[in-house]
Amino acid sequence: MSLLAFGPVPKAADTGDKYTLRPMSSGPFKIETYDEGKTLVMVRNDKWSQASDPVRTPHLDRIVWHFGLAEAIIDERMIADQGDDQAAITYAGLASQSLQTVFSGDQYADRRTDGYNGFVSYTIMNLKTVNCLAIRKAIWLAIDREAIRTAVGGPFTGTFASGFINPRLAVDFAEATLPEGLNADGTANTEAAKALMAQAKDDPKCASAYKLATETGLRFDHGASEAWTKVISIWMDSLKAVGIKIIDNPIEPKDLYAAFASNPGDMMRGGWATDWNNASTVIPPLFIKDGGSAYGNFWDDPDYPGFVERVNAALVEVDRAKQASMWKALNQWLVDQVWSIPGTYTRAQYLVGSKVRNAYNWYPFGWYAVGNIGLAA
Question: Which CATH number among 3.10.105.10, 3.30.750.24, 3.90.850.10, 1.10.760.10 corresponds to the domain 116-346?
Answer without folding.
Answer: 3.10.105.10
